[in-house]
UniProtKB/TrEMBL annotation:
<keyword id="KW-0378">Hydrolase</keyword>
<feature type="active site" description="Proton acceptor">
    <location>
        <position position="210"/>
    </location>
</feature>
<dbReference type="Pfam" id="PF01734">
    <property type="entry name" value="Patatin"/>
</dbReference>
<dbReference type="GO" id="GO:0006952">
    <property type="term" value="P:defense response"/>
</dbReference>
<dbReference type="GO" id="GO:0004620">
    <property type="term" value="F:phospholipase activity"/>
</dbReference>
<dbReference type="GO" id="GO:0047372">
    <property type="term" value="F:monoacylglycerol lipase activity"/>
</dbReference>
<dbReference type="InterPro" id="IPR002641">
    <property type="entry name" value="PNPLA_dom"/>
</dbReference>
<keyword id="KW-0442">Lipid degradation</keyword>
<feature type="short sequence motif" description="DGA/G">
    <location>
        <begin position="210"/>
        <end position="212"/>
    </location>
</feature>
<feature type="active site" description="Nucleophile">
    <location>
        <position position="64"/>
    </location>
</feature>
<feature type="short sequence motif" description="GXGXXG">
    <location>
        <begin position="24"/>
        <end position="29"/>
    </location>
</feature>
<feature type="domain" description="PNPLA">
    <location>
        <begin position="20"/>
        <end position="223"/>
    </location>
</feature>
<dbReference type="GO" id="GO:0016042">
    <property type="term" value="P:lipid catabolic process"/>
</dbReference>
<feature type="short sequence motif" description="GXSXG">
    <location>
        <begin position="62"/>
        <end position="66"/>
    </location>
</feature>
<keyword id="KW-0443">Lipid metabolism</keyword>
<comment type="function">
    <text>Lipolytic acyl hydrolase (LAH).</text>
</comment>
<protein>
    <recommendedName>
        <fullName>Patatin</fullName>
        <ecNumber>3.1.1.-</ecNumber>
    </recommendedName>
</protein>
Amino acid sequence: MQRTKSIVQPPTFGHFITVLSIDGGGVRGLIPAIILEFLEAELQKLDGEDARIADYFDIIAGTSTGGLVTAMLTAPNENRRPLFQAKDIKDFYLKMCPEIFPHDWRSTVKKAFKSIGGPLYDGKCLHNIIRNHLNETKLGDTLTNVIIPTFDIKKLQPVIFSSYEIEEKPYMNAKLSDICIATSAAPTYLPPHHFNTNHKDETYEFNLIDGGVAANNPTQIAMGVIAKQLNNKNPDFPYLLYPQYGRYLVISIGTGDCKIEGEYTADEASKWGLFGWWYNANGSKPLVDIFTQASTDMVDFHLSAVFQNHNVRNNYLRIQEDSLERKMFPLDKATKENLDSLVDAGTRLLTKEVSIVNLENGKLEPCGKETNAEALKAFAKRLSEEKSFRHLNSPRVSKADPTVCLEKKPYFEAPKAISIA
């Protein structure tokens, strides 16, 4: 099974392998929406108003709400351009989140009863919205390669939907709507999603929940998929004798953490039973907070160390807010006040200094005086240059203009310019 050709020239014709990753986090997806709007606007300043984020990344990975954003950025419209501009995502969330997660008194009463014997929301509204927008679009139709993690509760193992896998495993070429519904099915909030795919008279069954239980930050999964393609000698990728992290350009966008030191203590937690671990008096859900933040931070911790150790720190940009107020943290809090606060948080995040993980204490700390906005501008310039270089270096044949007929010249050597201390 052949997937639709990506609109992005493959990295074998360029200097870099480009990766965009978006965390999970429910309504907090508004934070990466603001960051992505800024990035796309910078790309449009460089390459024109038709520029879209999907034009610049070899892989876009997203978990849960990040998976929805990934689909919005990469699903094609009737003209084979992205279904959404990045600037449209914020308004989409502001309009749809209150419908998906209603907060009137009736819904509050319903949730009080449902929490005892089922998920807080039936998911019908979310499912209808996703299906109405994505229709029959399949994984193989996306405009660039995507990676969306889920978890199969019947097999008790992660299921990673990857554009690169569907030629080898055609049964993974599921509807993008089914994949998005599955990766958003957060336990206790939304019901698991069951669907089947068929290939050569065989039926393949999926029983999936939110990919955040396996990889709330999917950046490392994306890097792993790339490593597999390199190992398999995929001709779209440059031949590398060993991992060259200078060949990667990675932007990883978080949905915000609520790290209030001292909020959870061993003395307090020793009094919790099953209910206490699932629901705290302050409205938090300790167990959910712990497993999502642990997986998110471990990925950032690892990649920060790797890129620093290879002296290419500037090739990895993690944009994350780790001091959200507790009241802003619930993934289903879709009140107007909270949604507006999340938009403000995303806007302020652009003005904050770029931070990296302190490898001693695991905390985010500023590195230099460059703001996230300035770092994104620098990345936009590098992405634009990379796109132009690939265009010039790839084979082109034009009957109208024979001068653009170029030989295939894969770029195998890492340029010195990318070794940034």
